């Protein structure tokens, strides 16, 4: 089968490898239809996280996927899944017995396994990780359920109250999903901070009341204008850019929350914080990137409710052999989300 692997130094290759086989009683084999290019994948392509990878043999990548079940293990019966079902999957598999699993924090499982190998024709995961698409959700939208689940967990951690003023830094896929979820959570004066004009316009269509161009405008000055001089109740950094982090605490109002939501920043970047200001303003700082398995069922339902068409625009789908083009299109802003097609 075809499988895209990362070899370090920004090098991706498509290999021809044997198909994975069912080995555990509760395994499920999936024929991948679409796999999205995650923002974390772009960090790999830029060679910013090479210390994480097997450069000699190549590391499988891809975790935002949808597909069709082709085979079930004999014990994969708890969810009523069957061959031919259209599904998505949660790529982390938890043990169920460690401290964190027993305390409802499976995303921190001490014995985590799973599969981030969805940029392949087939993958095999345990039944616990598989979720059937519902309500007519198609396979393209299904590939966005994993990103939705990450954003939903981030919204849960941000604890937005009805009426909270909210700013989101970054207008990529995650920023666009966060914008919609924040709006549905009751956010007011919802503001998206994004340097690309096309993405700012899309943010307004998806519910943002205000947009700020951090290149052409003074970010702090505009934030204070929007919030009557107080700063935002909640600021979510979702761009993944370390440049966007510098000084972002200045946008947060007294008693506010600052969430660093984006998955990966440069490994050599240290965020500088004026602790006196943090103390004086009682800022709460939250990290929020792991997708809780408890967010996944809600995300399956949300896939039919959220406006995803502006993300899944014409030209966002690339044949598997054109994976380099898929990465390049997302890196240079021609797509908000590139999908690699394997069916």
Characterize the structure shown:
The chain is an alpha/beta fold and about 350 residues long. It has two domains: about 1-145 and about 310-340, Quinone Oxidoreductase, Chain A, domain 1 (Alpha-Beta Complex), CATH 3.90.180.10; about 150-285, Rossmann fold. It is built from eleven helices and 18 strands. The strands form four sheets. Strands 3, 5, 6, 9, 10, 17 and 18 form a seven-stranded mixed β-sheet that branches. Helix 9 (about 275-280) links the parallel strand 15 and strand 16 (about 285). The longest helix has 14 residues, at about 145-160. The relative contact order is 0.16. The model has no long low-confidence stretch (mean pLDDT about 90). GO terms for molecular function: oxidoreductase activity; zinc ion binding. InterPro entries: ADH-like_C, ADH-like_N, ADH_Zn_CS, ER, GroES-like_sf, NAD(P)-bd_dom_sf, Zn_alcohol_dh. Keywords: Metal-binding, Oxidoreductase, Zinc. This is Alcohol dehydrogenase. Its cofactor is Zn(2+).
Total number of beta strands? 18
CATH superfamily of the largest domain: Medium-chain alcohol dehydrogenases, catalytic domain
- C-alpha geometry: globular
SS summary, helix count: 11
Q: Report the structural category.
A: alpha/beta
The rounded distance between the terminal residues' Cα atoms is 12 Å
Which class of the largest domain in CATH terms?
Answer: Alpha Beta
What is the alpha-carbon Rg in Å?
20 Å
Strand content range: 25-35%
Unreliable residue runs: none
The major sheet is characterized as: 7 strands, mixed
